[in-house]
Amino acid sequence: MSFWLCWVLFLSASGVVAAADNTAMPRPPELERDVQFWIRVYTQVDTNSGFLHDEHNLAAVYETLHFDPNTSPHQRQKLVEQGKDRIAAALRRIAAANGGPLAESDQKIRDLWGEEATPARLREAADEVRFQLGQADRFKEGLIRSGAWETHIAETLANLGLPAELAVLPHVESSFNPAAYSKVGAAGLWQFMRSTGRRYMRIDSAVDDRLDPFRSTEAAAQLLAYNYRLLGSWPLALTAYNHGAEGVRRAKESLGTDDIVKIVRNYKGRTFGFASRNFYVSFLAALEVDRNPEKYFGAFDRLGEAKFQEVVVPGFVNIVPLTRALKIDAQKLRALNPALLRAVWDGQRHVPKSYHLRLPIDGEKWTSELLATRLSPNDFFAGQPQPRRYRVKAGDTIVTVSEEFGVTPQALATANRVRTSAKLRAGRTLTIPEVAPGTLVAAVAPAPPPTATAIATVGAQQAPPPASMQIASAAPTPAASTGAATADQNGIYVVQRGEAVSEIAKKVGLSEKELLRINGIRNRDFIFEGQQLVVKRSEAPTPVPENKAPTTPPKATLVASAGTAPVGAGAVPAAEAKRESQEDAAAVASAKAPENSQPVSAAQAEEISPALGPAAESGQNADPTDYTVGKDDTIEVAAAETLGHYADWLSVSAQHLRDVNHMKYGRAVIVGRRVKLDFRKVSREDFENKRREYHAELQASYFAAHRIVGSEVYIARRGDSMWTLTKRFSGLPIWLLRQYNPDLDFADLRPGTQIVMPRVEDVVANGT
Question: Domains, the chain, ranges and CATH?
């Protein structure tokens, strides 16, 4: 059965296909004034103009500002602030008049408010004057560009049974610019955040599929279908595309409704600001303009459909011999393959093995086999060049470090943007110029015996990840697959519900202390159902003769090597996962308070967000889990969390939390149940931030090595549980299963229950 047919069957079962009709995108009369506002923004004023308007009542457009194209952003901002002050002063005068006579200009402002023009409301409005930059020129450019991909977008949506109207979403997101980047780190035609994009696409040091309009379209369709299944309506699914699934679920539950009008008008969430309130109405406006482009812009021609041929690259190949073998100009090849990052074109990374390379359709007809014959065996590499880091010690210099790593001082200095004579501060981390792996021809030769130093380094790289991360990267084992409560032949034990460290240690014949040490667990409460523990004692390495030449510089300390799985496993260092999740968080944090980020020029609009509407408040996020603390100081236990986590984040003991919750010693918290917390030492906000950071790291690590390629509906059988399901489906993490079924009570799983199972494939980024 084909991939697309499987998708249609799944979506039909989950109700998505049935929603693809004329009522899929309702246009409520109560939101019409908002839709008309955005139609005006998209068609009446360009990026040299803009509206001064009320933030909530979009019918109240006070004034249109027009800028000279040569006016600097600073001068534009000054004119905007003067305009805001002028309108605010008028609103206060009108409020003070309390229905008395007004000057003609003030009367026009009052008339905009109609029956809402009470003194109290007008005083509020004086503090809510906002500027919206025009977008007509950008929208028309997007209409022209859209022709290149509209066929593929339409086919992708149709194949998944999704509403055809979703095809206009890139107008709102990026003006159909596949190279668009936003201030919060979103990229591409569909403006995926890195963390969300990695769920569905390849994003690494060589490839960023967010920049590929074809791959990102397929990913966007998956995300939109996922949002619809979670939230039950397209207005909410689209709002979640901007605001995040967690935030929209919270809004829905807070108000007890899925009515988009009530949510837009009444929800007062901390991050549910102007952008989130206006995302759906701006989409409806874009839909109106896209359906009637000549009405607003007159006659114009769209770009023709993008056509090309694809060839699967037979191995890791540098771009120079590849372009030579293909006899294609590098710039032309680059234009056809926007997902290949600069490092590939600069020669620092190779075109990955099995990459689907696009080529001109009118050239020679290529196959993978033909390309392999045109390339020399010496052109193929065993994998990608591996980045290295070094932490500076006292007395180190550029020269001494370069000698240890076998690179020139000039190369080391250039990689770190310092002079060769620069003084190095102890503790600083240096980037070591990358060493490319050997070619496949060289790789077949037998490797020399490893030295003691090399054994120590490899051992560190292949050590089990921290206990809190194991569920994200460990592969399923025979024991896990059968649900056995014993260790498998590789010495792996899968934690079952309610088990404590003491029980497991007794079963596997280890002391508690030794079990914790082997798995790098500092807190005995940091275990959870489904976690995979190493329970086999490691043997001491065999001594290596001293006369063997070291393969690793003896004095060089590689940073962040622990927790890294073998390259062939497609895993990611825990440190890298943490860095990437923090980069996403930092990007969003750098764009906080978007209501104050009101661009006054096209350049500023691009910097803040390529979206035609304002930038997102919370950043795109597909995780629907509510990580907030309730008013009663309780939280709902999420998958991969333990009492030890909560104790650590709260700076209290696990025993104290047991006492607060009247829990027996050694009993684990149960996913989906509520636990009471103590916030005497840590604020609720700090706790929530630590909790989100933990889950962001967990998910970043998993999606560095795996990718969601679809979903299927599974009918529960007698004896099924959350734990057995994750093992039956290739070691699926419990947290991911919960994300796809957030409202399902797995503790009361009955035969016949429909469960949505994400289909996941391994991603091998660096080769084997």
Answer: 3-28+137-303+592-608 (1.10.530.10), 48-133 (no CATH), 458-534 (3.10.350.10), 634-762 (3.10.350.10)
